[in-house]
Amino acid sequence: MARRSTSLNHSVLNAEPRVHQRGREIQPYGTVTHVFHLELEEPVRLEMTEQLNQLLADSMTLRDLYKKSHWQVAGPTFYQLHLLFDKHFDEQVEIVDTIAERIQLLGGLAIAMAHDVAETTRVERPPRGREEVPVVLSRLLDAHQIIVRRCRELAERSARLGDQGTNDMVVSEVLRPNELQTWFLSEHLVEGPLVHATEPASQAAD
Ligand SMILES: [Fe+2]
Prior knowledge:
Elements: H1 2-14, H2 42-72, H3 78-105, H4 114-120, H5 133-160, H6 164-186, H7 201-205
The structure holds fe (ii) ion.
């Protein structure tokens, strides 16, 4: 009778969710898994995943900078910039996922949490408060510049190491969209009249 009661208690306990669990890491950050069938040596995968994580941290920061800009932008160009910033944010979400999954595919671990991203990125931290439109645009362009430069270096290095998959991804799915976004932003910083066209020099002299 006592034994039966014990087994009944045991089955009840097994039905309880086992919450608040912690355990050891099954793969430390900064390592790649050993057995892989990609015909890419471990040192190559280690270097690529490290460099891709830098690109990932910078891209995640730019993604978040776009959302901050989308929410906080103010002024006569509010509507167009509000929409443009959100479009670029959505595109950066895709870019971030592509880089992260390339890192995982190479046997590495993608950086994920905001704390780790903040410690890793080279993009300058903006204030929490609202800034003027030219400053907002300049900050975004500065972040793009860091990413574009990194893409070119990474594309060259990955090709030299024989990792054409990373090379193709960096050029096609990160560099080109960032170049395009850079163009869309930079055209907003061209100074031009909104109402009165500038008169040609000869007419102005009359
Ligand atoms: Fe929104």
